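Milestone 3.1: sequence recovery, worked example.
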């Protein structure tokens, strides 16, 4: 009971802070469900048998909830309607439906396989897929404190959910496992929220509303406070100049462009590039910056080249697929490329 109390003592302030500060965000609401599932994992042995199906279903939802968190926080364009989303839904829904009819420890039958075993396998798959998004996209966040806190946040949550999932699937119900895992993970997550309170749960691409104008450069060193480090601003101006020349030459059209590739092309260290794009240009996400440049180029060509197929333009500006180009273009211009071209042609005729 002591370790259970420790876990609850750590989860309670985490729940209160999330409810107070992040309940208006979709990611915050989702994380509240993760906390509820963690409480269910912690207190399940203490619940009367006739009500334990509730805590069991809540625990089973944790891998799917973690996958959703990873998608919303890190994926440039979350794809919830996908094979991964179907696996996440199955991993929760199948055991919930099978629970009244099939015991997980029964002999192997089709009902046991489809009701329990396949769902358990999908739990591991969606957990790993969620972690792959964290590792793949965390560098695109240009706000250093938030980037590091987000990485720690989801690695801590993911590790705790992974250990909890393994312990549940293998029947390891010891209080030490539940109390220590839940308590330490809640405490570490609480530190992450406090460290980077601003923006840690923002959705990727939510820094500016769709269709908003491209951010303008921040004031030059002359308008900054007198105590600002002039050498720092001189270096930042030089880096910004190199970056602009590189992009003006069309480097943003490079397929699968990453911050690392851009760093190699400009010979500017990644940490300085992040500061330039964030502090000088006003962007908080690398993909958002690249999409603005590509869509501006594409919009000009759509206006000036009415005979060029949209697919050709999308490939020329750096998109691998027409669907990804359409999504990025619509987010910025509030219209698909075809609609935008038709609007421009109509304006020219009138």
């Amino acid at each position: 009971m002591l370790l259970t109390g420790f876990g609850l003592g750590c989860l309670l302030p985490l729940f209160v802070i999330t409810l107070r500060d992040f309940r208006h965000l979709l990611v915050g609401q989702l994380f509240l469900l993760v906390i509820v599932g963690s409480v269910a994992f912690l207190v399940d042995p203490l619940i009367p048998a006739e009500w334990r199906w509730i805590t069991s279903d809540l625990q089973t939802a944790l891998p799917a909830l973690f996958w959703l968190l990873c998608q919303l926080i890190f994926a440039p364009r979350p794809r919830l309607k996908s094979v991964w989303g179907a696996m996440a839904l199955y991993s929760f829904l199948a055991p919930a439906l099978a629970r009244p009819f099939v015991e997980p420890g029964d002999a192997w039958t089709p009902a046991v396989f489809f009701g329990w075993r396949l769902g358990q396998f999908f739990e591991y798959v969606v957990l790993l897929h969620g972690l792959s998004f964290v590792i793949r996209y965390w560098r695109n966040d240009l706000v250093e404190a938030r980037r590091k806190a987000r990485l720690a946040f989801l690695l801590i949550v993911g590790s705790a959910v992974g250990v909890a999932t393994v312990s549940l699937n293998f029947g390891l119900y010891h209080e030490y496992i539940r109390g220590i895992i839940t308590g330490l993970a809640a405490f570490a997550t609480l530190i992450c929220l406090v460290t980077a309170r601003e923006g840690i749960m923002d959705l990727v691409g939510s820094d500016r509303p769709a269709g908003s104008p491209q951010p303008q450069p921040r004031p030059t060193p002359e308008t900054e406070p007198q105590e600002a480090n002039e050498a720092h601003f001189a270096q930042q101006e030089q880096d910004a100049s190199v970056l602009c020349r590189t992009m003006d030459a069309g480097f943003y059209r490079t397929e699968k462009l990453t911050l690392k590739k851009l760093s190699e092309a400009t010979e500017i260290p990644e940490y300085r590039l992040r500061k330039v794009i964030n502090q000088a240009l006003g962007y908080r996400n690398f993909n958002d910056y690249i999409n603005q440049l590509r869509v501006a180029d594409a919009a000009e060509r759509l206006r000036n080249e009415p005979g060029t197929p949209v697919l050709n333009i999308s490939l020329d500006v750096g998109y691998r697929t027409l669907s990804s180009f359409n999504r990025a273009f619509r987010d910025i211009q509030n219209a698909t490329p075809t609609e935008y071209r038709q609007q421009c042609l109509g304006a020219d005729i009138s």
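Confidence is low (pLDDT under 50) at residues 205-224. The longest helix spans residues 110-137.
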